[in-house]
Write a structure and sequence with these properties.
about 140 residues; alpha+beta; two-stranded antiparallel sheet; about 15% strand
Length: about 140
């Protein structure tokens, strides 16, 4: 064990350092990627509306494949943001909902989504100006 990993109780000195998402080795970076990736953000946003069964969620998150939604849900569940409840029925029923941590994160994400949706006219106008300035003249 290196000197930066000397034990202090049950944690290493390295583990006692504050998390820093800008550091390559920080575990928060992976969670941030799960949350802010296209499907993670949309899945969390949809689940903010309430509990969904898998196919209901897939319909709500328009365009996501079954495989990608499954991978996204697994990652978010592993990070403690989504709770998966399998009920022993025939056919099996599986419901997904946000955990308290997931609800907090999704709430902040919803604020960003609402801000963006409310300012899309400005974004689209900016895109038009940008593209017009860079279009080659005929």
């Amino acid at each position: 064990m290196s000197t930066t990993q000397e034990r202090t109780g049950d944690r290493t000195e390295e583990e006692d350092l504050p998390y820093d998402v800008f550091s390559r080795a920080c575990p928060s970076r992976g969670t941030l990627e799960h949350i802010t990736g296209r499907w993670g953000a949309l899945t969390l946003g949809a689940l903010y509306e309430g509990s969904f069964r898998f196919n209901e969620l897939r319909r709500r998150v328009d365009g996501v494949s079954e495989k990608m939604l499954s991978q996204t849900l697994h990652a978010l569940e592993r990070d403690g943001l989504v709770h998966r409840e399998a009920q022993p029925t025939n056919p099996p029923r599986v419901d997904y909902e946000l955990t308290p941590l997931g609800r907090e994160v999704a709430g902040r994400l919803i604020t960003l989504i609402q801000c963006l949706e409310g300012r899309m006219d400005e974004v689209l106008a900016s895109r038009e100006r940008y593209d017009a300035q860079r279009m080659p003249t005929a």
